[in-house]
Structures are given as C-alpha cells and as structure tokens.
Design brief:
By secondary structure, this protein is α+β, with helices and mostly antiparallel strands. 38% of the residues lie in helices and 21% in strands. A three-stranded antiparallel β-sheet has the order 5-6-7. The chain has a two-stranded antiparallel ribbon with strand order 1-2.
C-alpha cells in the first residue's frame, strides 16, 4: 500500500543517524518547487536555511514535504541518493516488500516500482525508530517554534491516551488516511500501523 507521510519516520531516522542536529540545511529550488499542489509544507523558499534539528520538527510534526526534500538533499546529495539510503535501511531491517522513492511519501513510481510498503513492515520500521531517543523526543513534542515558524504535532493521540510514545499521520489521494503509532502499557510496547 501507499504509506503517504508515514514515510517520514524513516526519513527522520536516517537523517538523525547521518547528520549533526546543528548542521545547516539550505533549501534548493528543487526541494521547494517540485511538490504537487496542496501538499503539506512549512513555507520555506529556495535559499532559506534552517538547522537539521528544526527541519526534523517541521518534518515530523507538521509533515512538511519541502523539508523532507531539503533534508534528503542535505544528507545524501540528492533525493534519489537518499531514496537509496532509505531502501538500504529498510532491507537491513528485513523489509522485503517496501520500496521508497521519495523522502516525503508523496505517491510516486519509477522503472522499479511504486512507493509502497506493508503495515507489518511499517511496524518494523517504527520499532526501530523508537529506539532512538532524539526521534522519540521530537515526536512527543506538541509544539515547536523556530525562526518565524511554529509547528504543531498532528498526532492527536498524544493528547488522548497515556502511554503514546510516538506516531505519524499520513494522507494522499491514493493512500487515503494512514497512521503508525507506538504505545507502552504495563511494560510492553505495542505498534499499530494502519493503511
């Protein structure tokens, strides 16, 4: 199935593992202007600069698609090179039915296939992501302000239930509404992935 913006959990984790949080991300024209109309954005313009840390908040809380592109270019030099890193990490985690093309999760296809995964493999990816303290801290943040921006967490379950560790929402026309969440109850961790 199409995972939409849930893709961004792996994008964030790869950036956290490969970049310093205080590094400066410069937004390219491609990162900002290669998005489909009405997609979720922060509002950055070509030439703008933000720290990797602030970009991760915009990525995971507001689901900003141009930020995903900029982080991918910063981390790997290009969106295609970053997609290779995503697929290598997915394979390393045992995800054999996952193929990522974009860092933001917008519907895409190429000569190899479509941007797809399974609910089970998303759960595997989330299980890996929540082992990273920085990832969990960002996804538990309800609001974050930086420069002239303010981003709010779209994961409503943070306010509705105790024990929610992390979560990410997603939507595209092909994916519909989807969600992945990690919760801890009675010393046990549970992952729910809905596509």
């Amino acid at each position: 199935y199409y995972p939409a913006s849930i893709t961004k959990i792996l994008t964030a984790l790869i950036v956290i593992e490969n970049c310093g949080l205080d590094e400066t991300v410069t937004f390219s024209n491609t990162a900002v202007n290669s998005l489909e109309p009405n997609s979720s954005i922060l509002g950055a313009r070509a030439g703008d600069t933000l720290s990797v840390r602030d970009c991760l908040y915009a990525l995971l809380l507001q689901s900003a698609n141009e930020v995903a592109n900029a982080l991918a270019e910063h981390c790997a030099g290009s969106i295609d090179a970053f997609a290779e890193k995503m697929n290598e990490k997915a394979a390393e985690l045992g995800c054999m039915d996952t193929y990522f093309i974009t860092p933001n999760g917008l519907d895409a296809s190429d000569e190899t296939g479509e941007h797809v995964t399974t609910a089970k493999e998303l759960a595997v990816i989330m299980s890996y992501c929540i082992q990273n303290e920085e990832f969990v801290a960002i996804t538990q943040t309800k609001e974050h302000q930086f420069d002239s921006y303010s981003v709010s967490n779209a994961n409503a379950f943070l306010n509705m239930y105790d024990g929610v560790l992390s979560g990410k929402t997603g939507f595209t026309g092909n994916a519909g509404y989807c969600y992945v969440c990690a919760c801890r109850y009675d010393g046990k961790t549970f992952i729910a992935a809905l596509l």
